[in-house]
Amino acid sequence: MQFFIKRLLTALSREFPVFNLRLPDDLKGRLFRSAKANNRSQNAEYLHRLEKSFEQDEMTKLILEELRALRQEVAELRQSGESDTGSTE
Question: Do you know which Pfam families this protein is assigned to (predicted)?
Fold first, then answer.
């Protein structure tokens, strides 16, 4: 069984290059605790959090686009309301 796991890890290490990262001790501790709480390896926790950060970036962009569109609609409604009020006086 250990041979199979060792072989699998060797194959995976060829597929995914090693990436060394220096982390402050407090951040490393937080990641370690989070990985343990989520039943993930530290590597899986790093990957999960990186993926989530990119997803959040995309969601933030979409929300900002929606907000800009809503602001534009509000401005147009205010403008049309002001012109309607001005024409009835």
Answer: Arc
Say what angle helices 25-37 and 42-88 make with each other, to 10 degrees: 90
Asked whether the beta carbons of 67 and 61 are under 8 A apart, the reply is no
Count other C-beta atoms under 10 Å from residue 45's C-beta. 20
**Which stretches in the chain have pLDDT values below 50?**
89
**Burial (0-12, 13-18, 19+ Cβ within 10 Å), 46:** middle
How many whole angstroms separate alpha carbon 86 and alpha carbon 83? 5
Domain that holds residue 34: 25-88
pLDDT of residue 86: 62
Number of domains in the chain: 1
